[in-house]
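Example record

The entry below shows one chain as it appears in the dataset: sequence first, then structure tokens.
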Amino acid sequence: MKKIFFFLLFATFAVNAQQPKFDFPLNENGQIIFTEVVPAEGKTKQDLFTNSKMFFVNTYKVTQDKLKQNAEASSVSDTQYSIMTVKINGADVKVKLYYTVAILSKDNKYKYEIKNIITKTEVTETPLEKLFDKTAAEKAAQKPKTMEILNAYYGAINAEIETIKSNIKKEMSKASANKNDW
């Protein structure tokens, strides 16, 4: 009986060890969303609102009239993309990563959200939730090449998201921009 128990326990661990684990932050609707409330002591809501607009201007070269702004809510958002390089089968493949960045400002803090993330190649357009769903993870466990590709995407996407988060924090920590900077 003990031998059967240990065999089943070992088999369970072996199966779980083969299942890939792709951890992305999910909201209550199952959507992948990177978000954080960041303290900004001594900064007014208006200063942070201005800096959030400057984030888009300086990072993506977007003009103020192209941004989705809500002055009442002190929020700014825009859909952007980055080009990331994913190594697939030994070759570097350029993949566009589309996403929406929203920055909401309050006195002494702001919140950013990076959401609606889609990968796009010359032949496919796939929401992140679909690319890394349970079915994909199960297939990857059975096919080493698929696992290799998903791991490459996972690493490249996380690196790109970290760069975006870093750029937001850098811009939001600056002294408030002047209206002349527009």
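Notes for this example: The longest strand covers residues 91-106. Residues 1-18 have pLDDT under 50 and may be disordered.
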